[in-house]
């Protein structure tokens, strides 16, 4: 009984989830995707407390769970209705919106719902920093649902047909960038005028960590979470610059290292990601420091797009040319092997899709149902009891799960930090990690100040 | 325009730093913000983006300072930084003529791309290095030439020393004076505008502060 009801709700509000019901009509089938929100959702939640830089005068504050709880209270039910109806219309009316239309629709909806916050409790009586959280929450909620229709690589995966010009341009630019990165991945730091006083081992460790942080951009769906990846990567680069006393040179030192990180990082869909953030992060959030570091990433990406021998510092042109050709051969060889490998592999439905994490299958179901429940406030009293008990047991599962993921992330962070600071007592690093809740940025800061 | 916690109206000014890599752009900013530790909570990532508040009469101005990479090869990236900027410091080293030529190019590019909607201060750094050997100074840039450029392009001009701190506050204060507080829209501003264009990069006109074309004198 409860199950039936749930699938009704799912069908109504969440046409992206394929296992919603078997009777989805063709349109829905068409847009359905094998990958879903929850894959990343679980991971996102562990990262929830990485606080992106606050751009305004208020204290940084971000808590998505809190927002969801607020949205579930009876007083807020009109807001849930508006949101559902917006999402339903967005997904159902057309399969393909142009970028301009997407931006317009999403922005209009945000403005509409922001105004409605002033009418309904509990939002009505929140102060401005809490309202900010609710606005962040709405953005994350709707972009999580619309990701596969707005993020160009996913949109292409979903529809499997040519897209409109602007979405198509994202994909082409991603490919061009990817190619450039492959062609120039061998270059040394000196060619970008990264001072050779910088110890190579240290540079490599930090560059690796920074590109790993930046690479996480593909794990997240909300513009804010993607932005946090950019900020974390920038933070790690500044960690290196502080370490090597180059920080006071500002952008003169930062930009070359950022470019170097991108060249070494092999991160997919970087341009689509940058454009997605720029398009769907509310202008009220995308300013100040966020805007600066996103612009720097754009600038670095632009530089690589136009990269040629003449934009590098090269002393031995002949030697460079040889290295360049050697690398081209290597790239071709790798592609060949990769191609063969793919043929040998058991067909994997997720293979063509690099836009998401490996699915955490056991995990997925639980989190999906949780997420959907968040979106379906109980309306019928007769069902309330069953649903409530069900929900609480699910909630336990989810929190267990999140703990597990958090634990893994924590270990991963600890390992990276130990690599970055090999001279430091491991137990000390562990203490710092604990104190800083395993958030990369603050950890690097604290360890840097300890190592001086 | 937003309001800070104390309720004082605050004008946020995006200021971009341009100039060759060794002229001391970042040092000027670090010197500017170093007298003030109350800002430590704000930018947390690094010395490429910094903010600082100053007061003008009973109002507050918050500078958001965008550093750019000065190496020649990164010059094409500058437009990504100066879009929507209300002010620019174009910095050169007064003992290095080449850096002045580059500064001249930056001024021209800014005016060409942004029109008169940007307040530009030309800043000659490293005045602490100026020495006289008898009648001959190591000043590499002719003062008349600077004066001419300032008049032609309507620039503020300051000679400063990031090392000693001389004239540093003055530059920012003067830039702050030049930018008018908006007289309308105290509540919701254009960021809530529904007609946000797809590519904000091209939307320079509509977002710059209006009335920024008052005539600026040359302070040299």
Automatic annotation (TrEMBL), chain A:
<dbReference type="Pfam" id="PF18151">
    <property type="entry name" value="DUF5601"/>
</dbReference>
<feature type="domain" description="CUE">
    <location>
        <begin position="409"/>
        <end position="452"/>
    </location>
</feature>
<dbReference type="InterPro" id="IPR003123">
    <property type="entry name" value="VPS9"/>
</dbReference>
<dbReference type="InterPro" id="IPR037191">
    <property type="entry name" value="VPS9_dom_sf"/>
</dbReference>
<dbReference type="Pfam" id="PF02845">
    <property type="entry name" value="CUE"/>
</dbReference>
<dbReference type="GO" id="GO:0016192">
    <property type="term" value="P:vesicle-mediated transport"/>
</dbReference>
<dbReference type="GO" id="GO:0043130">
    <property type="term" value="F:ubiquitin binding"/>
</dbReference>
<dbReference type="GO" id="GO:0031267">
    <property type="term" value="F:small GTPase binding"/>
</dbReference>
<keyword id="KW-0833">Ubl conjugation pathway</keyword>
<dbReference type="Pfam" id="PF02204">
    <property type="entry name" value="VPS9"/>
</dbReference>
<dbReference type="GO" id="GO:0030139">
    <property type="term" value="C:endocytic vesicle"/>
</dbReference>
<dbReference type="GO" id="GO:0005085">
    <property type="term" value="F:guanyl-nucleotide exchange factor activity"/>
</dbReference>
<dbReference type="InterPro" id="IPR045046">
    <property type="entry name" value="Vps9-like"/>
</dbReference>
<feature type="domain" description="VPS9">
    <location>
        <begin position="171"/>
        <end position="313"/>
    </location>
</feature>
<dbReference type="GO" id="GO:0005829">
    <property type="term" value="C:cytosol"/>
</dbReference>
<protein>
    <submittedName>
        <fullName>Vps9p</fullName>
    </submittedName>
</protein>
<dbReference type="InterPro" id="IPR041545">
    <property type="entry name" value="DUF5601"/>
</dbReference>
<dbReference type="InterPro" id="IPR041804">
    <property type="entry name" value="Vps9_CUE"/>
</dbReference>
<dbReference type="InterPro" id="IPR003892">
    <property type="entry name" value="CUE"/>
</dbReference>
<dbReference type="InterPro" id="IPR009060">
    <property type="entry name" value="UBA-like_sf"/>
</dbReference>
Automatic annotation (TrEMBL), chain B:
<keyword id="KW-0547">Nucleotide-binding</keyword>
<dbReference type="InterPro" id="IPR027417">
    <property type="entry name" value="P-loop_NTPase"/>
</dbReference>
<dbReference type="Pfam" id="PF00071">
    <property type="entry name" value="Ras"/>
</dbReference>
<dbReference type="GO" id="GO:0003924">
    <property type="term" value="F:GTPase activity"/>
</dbReference>
<protein>
    <submittedName>
        <fullName>Ypt53p</fullName>
    </submittedName>
</protein>
<dbReference type="InterPro" id="IPR005225">
    <property type="entry name" value="Small_GTP-bd"/>
</dbReference>
<dbReference type="InterPro" id="IPR001806">
    <property type="entry name" value="Small_GTPase"/>
</dbReference>
<dbReference type="GO" id="GO:0005525">
    <property type="term" value="F:GTP binding"/>
</dbReference>
């Amino acid at each position: 009984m409860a199950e039936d009801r749930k699938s009704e709700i799912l069908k109504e509000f969440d046409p992206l989830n394929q296992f919603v019901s078997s009777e989805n009509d063709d349109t829905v089938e068409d847009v359905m995707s094998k990958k879903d929100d929850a894959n990343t959702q679980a991971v996102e939640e562990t990262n929830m407390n990485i606080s992106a830089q606050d751009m305004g005068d208020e204290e940084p504050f971000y808590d998505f769970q809190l927002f969801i709880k607020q949205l579930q209270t009876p007083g807020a039910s009109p807001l849930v209705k508006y949101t559902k109806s917006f999402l339903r219309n967005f997904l159902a009316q057309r399969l393909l919106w142009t970028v301009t239309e997407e931006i317009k629709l999403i922005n209009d909806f945000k403005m509409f719902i922001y105004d409605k916050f002033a009418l309904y409790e509990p939002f009505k009586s929140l102060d401005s920093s809490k309202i900010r959280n609710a606005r962040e929450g709405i953005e994350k909620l709707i972009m999580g649902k619309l990701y596969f229709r707005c993020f160009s690589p996913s949109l292409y995966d979903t529809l499997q047909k040519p897209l409109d010009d602007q979405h198509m341009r994202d994909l082409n630019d991603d490919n061009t960038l990817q190619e450039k990165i492959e062609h120039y991945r061998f270059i040394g730091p000196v060619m970008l005028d990264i001072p050779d006083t910088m110890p190579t081992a240290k540079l490599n460790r930090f560059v690796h960590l920074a590109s790993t942080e930046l690479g996480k951009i593909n794990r997240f769906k909300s513009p804010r979470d993607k932005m946090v990846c950019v900020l974390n990567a920038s933070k790690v680069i500044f960690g290196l610059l502080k370490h090597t006393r180059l920080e006071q040179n500002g952008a003169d030192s930062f930009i070359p290292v950022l470019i170097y990180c991108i060249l070494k990082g092999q991160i997919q869909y970087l341009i689509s990601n940058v454009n997605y953030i720029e398009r769907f992060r509310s202008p009220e959030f995308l300013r100040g420091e966020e805007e600066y570091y996103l612009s720097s990433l754009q600038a670095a990406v632009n530089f690589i797009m136009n990269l040629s021998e003449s934009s590098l510092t090269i002393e031995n042109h002949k030697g460079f040319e040889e290295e360049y050709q050697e690398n081209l051969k290597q790239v071709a060889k790798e592609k060949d092997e990769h191609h063969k490998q793919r043929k040998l592999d058991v067909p994997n439905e997720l293979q063509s899709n690099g836009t998401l994490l490996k699915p955490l299958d056991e995990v997925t179901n639980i989190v999906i149902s949780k997420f959907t429940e968040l979106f379906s406030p109980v309306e019928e009293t007769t069902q309330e009891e069953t649903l409530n008990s069900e929900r609480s047991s699910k909630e336990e599962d989810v929190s267990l799960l999140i703990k597990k993921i958090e634990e893994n992330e924590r270990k991963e962070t600890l390992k990276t930090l130990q690599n970055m600071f090999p001279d430091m007592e491991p137990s000390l690093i562990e203490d710092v990690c604990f104190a800083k809740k395993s958030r990369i940025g603050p950890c690097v800061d604290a360890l840097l100040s300890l190592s001086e | 325009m937003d309001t800070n916690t104390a309720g004082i109206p605050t004008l946020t000014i995006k200021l971009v730093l341009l100039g060759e890599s060794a002229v001391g752009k970042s040092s000027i900013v670090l010197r500017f913000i170093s007298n003030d530790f109350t800002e430590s909570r704000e930018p947390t990532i690094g010395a490429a983006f910094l903010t600082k508040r100053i007061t003008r009469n009973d109002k507050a101005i918050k500078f958001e300072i965008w550093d750019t990479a000065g190496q020649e090869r990164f010059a094409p990236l500058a437009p990504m930084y100066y879009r929507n900027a209300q002010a620019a410091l174009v910095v050169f080293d007064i003992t290095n003529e080449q850096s002045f030529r580059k500064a001249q190019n930056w001024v021209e590019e800014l005016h060409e791309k942004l029109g008169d909607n940007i307040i530009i201060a030309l800043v000659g750094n490293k005045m602490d290095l100026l020495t006289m050997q008898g009648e001959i100074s190591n000043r590499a840039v002719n003062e008349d030439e600077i004066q001419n450029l300032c008049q032609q392009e309507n620039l503020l001009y300051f000679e400063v020393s990031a090392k000693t701190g001389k004239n540093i506050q003055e530059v920012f204060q003067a830039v702050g004076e030049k930018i008018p507080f908006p007289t309308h829209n105290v509540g919701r501003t254009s960021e809530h505008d529904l007609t946000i264009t797809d590519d904000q990069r091209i939307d320079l006109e509509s977002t710059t502060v209006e009335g920024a074309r008052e005539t600026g004198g040359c302070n040299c």
